[in-house]
Amino acid sequence: MRKFDGVECEVKKKKGFVATCECGWESDEKRTKEEAIISFEDHVRSNPSHHMFENEEQKNFFSIFLGILGFVYVVSPIDLVPDYLIGIGWLEDILIGVLSIFLIKKGVDGRSPTEIFSEIFK
Fold this sequence. Notes:
Layout: E1 2-4, E2 7-13, E3 17-21, H1 33-46, H2 61-75, H3 88-108, H4 113-120
Antiparallel strand pairs: 1-2, 2-3
Helix pairs in contact: 2-3
């Protein structure tokens, strides 16, 4: 597999080398693997459908939503551990606040909550 500008290509050897794009395009048979890859790269550059979503970033809105929900919990007067238990109540709010920052930051990068939690607690 070869990737160019986010588009995957597979180069197979038949009589010559043939590059196949994920959109279904196939190159002509080339003498070398490098020629097939260059043909694929030219195809990606010249085909506007490959660049349609180029600037659109992938965001995980569920992670962002959980992060915002965490911040709402931190500033709300309702707590699982009351703040008058000095140290424990504040520590709980700080931990949820930090976790919310991670959820929002990684959610903007497209990471799911499962990936984020497994990265934090590994």
